[in-house]
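Deviation from plan, reported transparently: carboxymethyl coenzyme *A complex.
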Amino acid sequence: TGFITLDPGYKNSGSCTSEITFLDGELGILRYRGYSIEDLAEQASFPEVSYLLIFGELPTAQQLAQFDADIKKHTLVNEEMKNIIDGFPKTAHPMGVLSALTSALTAFNPKSVNVENEKEMYDAVCKTIAKFLVIATWTYRKTMGYPLNYYDNTIGYVENFMQLMFKLPTGPYAANPIVVNALDKLFILHGDHEQNCSTSTVRMVGSSHAGLFASISAGVSALWGPLHGGANQAVLEMLEEINKDGGDTDKFMAKAKDKNDPFRLMGFGHRVYKNFDPRARIIKKAADEVLNTLGVDDPILAIAKKLEAAALEDEYFKSRSLYPNVDFYSGIIYRALGIPTDMFTVMFAIGRLPGWIAQWKEMRENKEPIGRPRQIYTGHPLREFKSNK
Ligand code: CMC
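Because the crystal trials were delayed, the predicted structure below was used instead.
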């Protein structure tokens, strides 16, 4: 079988070549298709960045308008999908429901995409972007017991997110532009992050030529875990726990450093960023702006600031290069914007969707072989069968 290298967690193994995202963990650099994340977050819109990630170039004004119009052609979700949502208990976690609904889209769109056909691929991209937003917000409406909303084709994608989530049949709804602007930025910052756990999952599942919806549904499941996208929910829960406990951040710092205690400081550390997370820098600034403009005064924020300052000065954290990551601040903004805690990871999924699509498309276009890692067997040698009955 030849020589097998063992690299648990793929800490030093590349799984593919990619032209989508450049990341330098030492220098804290993140670029999509060569454009710096700072420029994109400041100057571009989320649909524009989605187009860039998926198709490789920034769209012209006409291409962007067409993209928007083509997404709008697919914003209706089959009414029978509602029967599936009805089957879930109200208490179901939105990420579990989102994964299931994304997978269910395969049943309503059974024809697999021919990646070599540009038009078919383009339609599949628009369809996925349109329907995923709608079902993502439906997971929240389900938990609230509210009627499900429909996409409003007269307004933009991010405004639609707010409307789909919060519009009630009892009155008009207009999204706060400050909130829309902050969300646009947050979605951009989550757009892609090379071969992270969920993206690798999407590529791995897709490498067996499973369809786009099936692969993305697997990505949603991978994202859900607290060591990955689920960290943003875990951060808020941790801050709430510290607050309830009396706000003693030193006590929780000590717990995080105790090797006999499984507790970790959520929102700190990153597999590849060892000096700082460039997304966290942009988000921290945005968080300050949003909180000031909205006039939010929240004891949780004071705890977050205290924890951040303590960790940045702490030898344990410094020696292991553990800095606040994107999830530390994103949860704080989502909370200020009125997004419920168990929807935080769904927000991450909406932002990461264009990255998953871009990576799936690239993997198929590059005709990558099926993903099939090897292992080193450490079990029993051959044993003689003798029944234990
Ligand atoms: N709190 C306390 N100790 C930590 C933490 C933490 N948050 N993160 C890492 N460590 C320690 C760890 O115990 C180990 O110590 P030692 O060398 O003494 O055994 C050392 O730092 C290296 O950690 P690791 O687990 O080997 O590092 P990793 O690259 O496998 O894990 C990580 C990276 C992000 C999973 C981890 O830092 C972590 O669990 N962080 C908390 C969860 C979190 O915020 N996740 C979001 C990541 S960013 C968004 C995303 O990509 O999804």
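The pocket of carboxymethyl coenzyme *A is lined by residues 9, 196, 227-229, 231, 256, 264-271, 320, 322, 325-327 (CB under 6 Å). We consider this an acceptable substitute for the interim report.
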